[in-house]
Write a structure and sequence with these properties.
- By secondary structure, this protein is mainly alpha-helical.
- The chain has one domain.
- 80% of the residues lie in helices and 1% in strands.
- A two-stranded antiparallel ribbon has the order 1-2.
- Helix 2 crosses helix 4 and helix 3 runs antiparallel to helix 7.
- The two termini are 24 Å apart.
């Protein structure tokens, strides 16, 4: 199997795992509250990461690497989970999926700044078309204005992009799975006490889907999904593989329609068709990696 094909397959596996994140968050928030859902998942994932690092006797990162791991943690352990959980209190998961479709564009921009990648003009055109379509649709269904939840989702997008880009660079030095493990472990002194102090269990919503959603977030979204995602970014490049996340709304939309019976309009399919086309052309565009 070609190296590039392997990179895309790892990337798609990560996208599939992340695609259920917003529906799982939507299911878990009524029972646990957005603080526990946003940061509590990192506690469980952090404990799993610590066990795995100890079992494999992994080498402790250097001081410069620890600083960069802190940047990764700010993005994917704190920023994205917290802001997305807050947004899911007030907007449908399918709406959140549209906004998070902007992640590839921000990730590519950071890939240029951090990893010195040089996407071609065609790549940027494809990315802007896909992202512009997503933003336009979000404003349209919001009645011409962005909601407060949209602002939270945009902060989640920027957080994820930072964590993805820096994590992909570190994966070349530490290995894809060690990056997320170390990021989670160094976050435990913060995530654990905040989760314990801010825990709010609303027993009125004590239902099996909420528990399933929370453990999915902790084990898949916050842990195993990153194994595949960072591996794909490391092998195929931040810009190229990162653009696969434009496909993530597909997964979220259909999961939301099945789990929450959220309506999928014909306009949604049109938006996703445009996004899919932009991903295709972005994949064909040249990206120079230093």
């Amino acid at each position: 199997m070609k190296h590039e094909t392997q990179a895309y397959l790892w990337g798609l596996l990560g996208v599939g795992a992340f695609g259920l994140t917003l529906p799982a968050t939507k299911a878990a928030v009524p029972l646990f509250g957005f603080v526990t859902v946003g940061l509590g998942r990192a506690v469980i994932a952090g404990i799993l990461g610590l066990v795995l690092l100890m079992a494999t006797r992994s080498k402790i990162p250097t001081q410069p690497q620890l600083f960069r791991l802190a940047i990764v943690a700010l993005g994917v352990v704190f920023g994205f989970p917290f802001f997305s959980a807050y947004a899911m209190e007030s907007v449908p998961a399918s709406h959140g999926a549209i906004i998070t479709g902007l992640i590839p564009l921000f990730t590519a921009l950071l890939g240029v700044l951090l990893a010195k990648e040089k996407p071609s003009l065609g790549y940027w055109v494809a990315g802007l078309v896909g992202s512009g379509t997503i933003v336009s649709y979000s404003i349209y269904i919001g009645g011409g204005v962005l909601q407060i939840a949209d602002a939270a989702l945009l902060l989640a997008v920027m957080s994820a992009a930072i964590g993805y880009a820096e994590g992909a660079r570190l994966a070349k030095e530490l290995g894809s799975w060690r990056v997320i493990c170390y990021a989670l472990v160094i976050s435990l002194p913060v995530t654990l006490p905040i989760t314990l102090l801010g825990a709010e269990i609303n027993l009125e919503y004590n239902a099996l889907p909420a528990w399933i959603g929370f453990f999915y977030l902790s084990i898949i979204s916050m842990f195993l999904g990153f194994f595949a995602w960072y591996k794909g970014l490391q092998m195929g490049g931040i810009a190229k593989v990162g653009q696969l996340q434009l496909l993530q709304p597909f997964v979220t939309f259909f999961a939301s329609s099945v789990l929450f019976r959220e309506q999928i309009s014909s306009l949604m399919f049109l938006v996703l068709a445009i996004v899919l086309t932009s991903v295709h052309f972005g994949r064909k565009s040249k990206v120079i990696r230093e």
